[in-house]
Amino acid sequence: MAIVGSIVKGFLDLRDQLVSEKNPVESQKEVLQMLLETAKDTDFGKHYKFNEILQSPDQLDAFTQKVPYFDYNKMNTEWWCKIHEGANDVSWPGRPDYFALSSGTTGKTSKRIPVTNEMIKAIKDAGIEQVYALTNFDLPADFFEKDIMMLGSSTALDNVDEHLEGEISGISASKIPAWFRGYYKPGEEIAEIDDWDERVNRIAEKATEWDIGALSGIPSWMELMLKEVIERHKLKNIHELWPNLQVYTSGGVAFSPYEKSFNALLGKPITIIDTYLASEGFIAFQARPETDAMQLVTNGGIYFEFVPFNPKYIDQNGALIKDAPCIPLSEVELNQDYVLIISTVSGAWRYIIGDTIEFTDIERAEIKITGRTKFFLNVVGSQLSVNKMDDAVNHLEDQFSIKIPEYTICAKKIGGEFHHCWYLGTDEQLDEHETAENLDEYLKSANKNYKVARSKALKGVKVTPVPVSIFHDWNAANKKKGGQVKMERVMGEEKFEEWEQFVMENRQS
Q1: What are phi and psi of 344, to 5 degrees?
Q2: Neighbour-count burial of 236, counting CB atoms closer than 10 A to its CB (0-12 exposed, 13-18 middle, 19+ buried)
Q3: H-only helix segments in 85-232
Q4: CA–CA dist 77, 270 (Å, integer)
Q5: What is the pLDDT of residue 2?
Q6: Which residue from 81, 99, 101 is spatially nearest to 91, judged by alpha carbons?
Q7: How many CB atoms lie within 10 A of CB 337?
Q8: Which residues form the GH3 C-terminal domain (predicted)?
């Protein structure tokens, strides 16, 4: 009998019964009050008159009126750059001990996002809340005695100008509490290895020594690690080695494009739990099995606002116009895409994180990520968001019984007219013409704006299948393998030219 696991499970069940449900709207009001109070004497707080906002009868409205939107470039140029020059109390009291490096999906240059001790605590607290929520998934007691494989970026952080730098997954893993270290795999020594291929090689070497019950990490890199372990030990699937693997906590990107290829590595079904940990903070996690939506962490270190995702509020670079209307959590609606805006205990204020979300349950504050503002394909009025593209790729997988875990798309001029050019990552045979025709018909039926665009300025659809490895090699060449690295789903024409040249060269090699 799993005695320790039974005790842990019993504690979690008891706590779940004793702790009352939080009110997300009230929690958000308290978070904003705390943020303003804490930061009112910083340079940012003085400049935007936080004291006046605190004295206002409607703090939420006063906050939106006095503080403009900030993207990373604006926040860094006007405020965070002063931290690197040695200033204290810039947009949050003191100086951050960490900076999270994030190139996201939009370029080679890393963003350097402050991570304060308050943010580390907020991430830990959200992680604990997610552990408590496991009681909703009816997992057996022995699950709570198994090892947990967390596959993120290296925990070996760089010391730069009196602070440490690394990706947020590496920063978080480097702060793992002592009581958890016995369960944590691959362990501190392997987790510090910076070279992705070497780290995966060491994981494959040690894999037989572990009894893994849960996996956590970005799907594309998790798949590569599992494939290496399976190949190294000549397995049919990963359950032959880790029979007690029961949970996979996904994050960073939507899991749906990877579902078929990921499940192909398993010997039996497991529970998939989505999370939303960004460089800017722990935003949401799946709290119950009845849905794959995620619950916003409304009582932590982040205050959320929402801009209706309407093309007229987005400029050609995917940024918000300054007068775009914004609403608090209390005013959101179902079936509406929103641009997510956050203010945090790391000193990000009305910060455009770049993601779009949709509410699936307002009372529970549950959301789904629907795409990226810069990955909204609307060059000729097609209005395709990433979730619509994901749905189309999932449709192709079902239609042709294949796996397509990666893809990218560009609205490209061919012979003076726009075409949607898709590159589909698959290791199986695919008829380009038939696939393009099927994809086109699906999108016409699923998206009325796309159908209209196809009758006017969007003249055709082109599909090019390429091996999945080329997508991984592209990421490695442009950024770095593993960690938080994600594939750009939509490219501009200039970037797409680089991509097509890369594909041609790597196909020939």
Answers
A1: -135, 170
A2: exposed
A3: 117-133, 168-174, 188-191, 196-206, 219-232
A4: 45
A5: 47
A6: 81
A7: 19
A8: 390-494
Contact (CB, 8 A) for 274 and 294: yes
Answer whether residue 244 shows pLDDT above 90.
Answer: yes
CA dist., res. 341 & res. 326, Å (int) = 9
pLDDT band at 3 (very low <50, low <70, confident <90, very high): very low
Task: Transcribe 220-286 into DSSP letters.
Answer: HHHHHHHHHHHHHTT-SSGGGT-TT--EEEEESS-SGGGHHHHHTT-SS--EEEEEEEETTEEEEE-
What's the token pair of residue 70?
A: 């900030």
For residues 284 and 174, the answer to whether their CB atoms sit within 8 Å is no
Q: What is the mean pLDDT of residues 104-131?
A: 79
Instruction: Kindly report the number of other CB atoms within 10 A of residue 121's CB atom.
Output: 14
Q: The tokens of 240 are what?
A: 């032959």
Strand arrangement, sheet containing 458-466? 406-414, 417-425, 458-466
More confident residue, 266 or 387: 266
Domain residues of the chain, as ranges? 377-508
For tokens 């470039």, what's the residue? 73
User: How distant, in Å, are the alpha carbons of 27, 91, 94, 360, 364 from that of 116?
Assistant: 21, 11, 9, 31, 28
Tell me the percentage of the chain whose pLDDT exceeds 90.
48
> H helices of 140-235, where?
168-174, 188-191, 196-206, 219-232
d(CA 200, CA 330): 45
User: pLDDT digit string (tens) for 201-217?
Assistant: 999 999 999 999 999 88
